[in-house]
């Protein structure tokens, strides 16, 4: 009987060892230069306006781990469910000041800073931990590609836009490290572990 | 054979009961998943400040007629400046589907659900057009 417990304990230890998380990859087109250097993709430079009408640039996010998404406030399809999942992330990581949520609107015509302010206020989220960004539509749509997301203007889609509802994890050096389908709570569970791993590894 | 005939009848009735028990709520649940989950969430909790929770809603606890009309006509928010989305109209659903939806949300979110028939829902929908 005693051996049984020892063996069981050993089995538990071994399997928990197996579950240790592998490092997250850098996602996107990794290129090698003629001189043999590796170039990892980064989020391009940007400058947008947040819900408090302040300018936010990519430099403000360097040094932070960010969770990004593309949405619009009048979206009648998947956005509320994605926002609900982001609230789970917001709550779970509330004691990590280096983590920030960044929601880019894809509908800047309707989503002015004032409207984003109201939206954030309704959600009762802290602007220091969750920014909502607006700006020129073309730039917002273009940057979605760096965040491995799809944004299309489509009059036939609900609310006028087609988009993927992805949540994207970006490290302190602006590399995409993980993403998930933000409409699926189970995928978000898995994504949370990636976020935790990145935070535990200093955000790099 | 007489015994067989009864057996068939018995199985037919049994099948009907099973179909009613499993089939009806099931259809309501998948209709809810397809049409409502994105906004009101699987547990009916909504999105605070944006989409109302319906797991404690008086509209769900209240008379089925009001709920039928809400689903049929949708509802524009009273204050369009402070609101972001409207409750859409589900005119494209059939009366059977609306009935199954009503029975599903009542089963989930009322203590003592009063189930409704398709005839009752059809009459209610006519009255609110």
Please give the most extensive interface between any two protein chains, plus how many residues each contributes.
A-B, 19 and 16 residues
CATH topology of chain A: Glutaredoxin
The CATH C-level name of chain A is: Alpha Beta
**Secondary structure: number of strands of chain B:** 0
Low-confidence segments of chain B: none
CATH superfamily of chain B: Cytochrome c-like domain
The coarse silhouette of chain B is elongated
How do the SSEs of chain A run, as a string of H and E?
HEEEEHEHEHEHEEEEH
Helix content of chain A: 25-40%
Class from helix and strand fractions of chain B: mainly alpha
User: Structural class of the secondary structure composition of chain A?
Assistant: alpha+beta
CATH architecture of chain B: Orthogonal Bundle
Instruction: Work out the number of β strands of chain A.
Output: 11
Helix count of chain A? 6
CATH architecture annotation name of chain A: 3-Layer(aba) Sandwich
Q: What spatial order of strands do you see in the largest sheet of chain A?
A: 7-6-5-10-11
Compute the separation of the termini of chain A in Å.
46 Å
Rg of chain B from C-alpha positions?
A: 18 Å
The percent range for helix content of chain B is 55-70%
Strand content of chain A: 15-25%
Largest pleated sheet of chain B: none
3D architecture notes:
The complex is a heterodimer of chains A (204) and B (129). In chain A, 35% of the residues lie in helices and 22% in strands. By secondary structure, chain A is α+β, with helices and mostly antiparallel strands. Chain A has one domain (44-200): Glutaredoxin (3-Layer(aba) Sandwich), CATH 3.40.30. Chain A has a 5-stranded mixed beta sheet with strand order 7-6-5-10-11, sandwiched between helices. In chain A, β8 (151-153) and β9 (161-163) form a beta hairpin. The longest helix of chain A has 17 residues, at 2-18. Chain A is globular and about 70 Å long. In chain A, 37% of the residues are buried. Chain B has 129 residues and is mainly alpha-helical. Chain B has one domain: Cytochrome c-like domain (Cytochrome Bc1 Complex, Chain D, domain 2). Helices cover 60% and strands 0% of the residues of chain B. In chain B, α1 crosses α5, α4 packs across α6 and α5 packs across α6. The radius of gyration of chain B is 18 Å and the shape is elongated. Chain B starts with a helix and ends with a helix. Classes of the chains: A alpha+beta (204), B mainly alpha (129). The A-B interface holds A 73-81, 83-84, 87, 118-119, 121-124, 183 and B 37-39, 41, 45-51, 82, 84-86, 88.
């Amino acid at each position: 009987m005693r051996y049984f417990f020892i063996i069981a304990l050993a089995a538990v230890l071994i399997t928990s060892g197996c579950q240790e998380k592998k490092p997250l990859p850098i996602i996107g087109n990794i290129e090698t230069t003629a001189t043999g250097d590796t170039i990892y993709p980064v989020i391009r430079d940007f400058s947008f306006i947040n819900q408090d009408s302040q300018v936010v640039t990519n430099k403000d996010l360097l040094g932070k781990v960010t969770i990004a998404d593309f949405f619009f406030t009048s979206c009648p399809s998947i956005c509320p469910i994605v926002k609900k999942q982001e609230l789970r992330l917001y709550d779970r990581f509330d004691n990590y000041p280096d983590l920030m949520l960044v929601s880019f609107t894809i509908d800047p015509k309707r989503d002015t800073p004032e409207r984003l302010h109201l939206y954030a206020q309704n959600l009762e989220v802290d602007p220091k931990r969750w920014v909502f960004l607006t700006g020129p539509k073309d730039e917002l749509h273009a940057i979605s590609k760096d965040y491995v997301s799809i944004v299309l203007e489509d009059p036939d889609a609900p609310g006028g836009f087609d988009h993927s509802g992805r949540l994207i994890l970006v490290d302190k050096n602006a590399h995409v490290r993980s993403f998930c389908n933000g409409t699926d709570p189970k995928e978000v569970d898995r994504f949370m572990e990636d976020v935790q791993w990145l935070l535990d590894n200093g955000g790099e | 054979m007489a015994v067989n005939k009864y057996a068939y009848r018995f199985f037919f009735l049994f099948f009907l009961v099973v179909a009613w028990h499993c089939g009806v709520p099931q259809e309501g649940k998948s209709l809810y998943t397809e049409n409502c989950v994105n906004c009101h969430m699987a547990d009916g909790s909504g999105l605070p400040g944006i989409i109302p929770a319906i797991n404690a809603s008086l509209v769900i606890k209240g008379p089925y007629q009001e709920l039928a009309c809400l689903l049929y006509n949708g509802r524009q928010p009273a204050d369009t400046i402070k609101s972001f989305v409207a409750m859409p109209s589900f005119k494209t659903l059939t009366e059977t589907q609306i009935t199954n939806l009503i029975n599903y949300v009542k089963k989930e979110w009322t203590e003592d659900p009063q189930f409704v028939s398709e005839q009752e829902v059809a009459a209610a929908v006519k009255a609110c057009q």
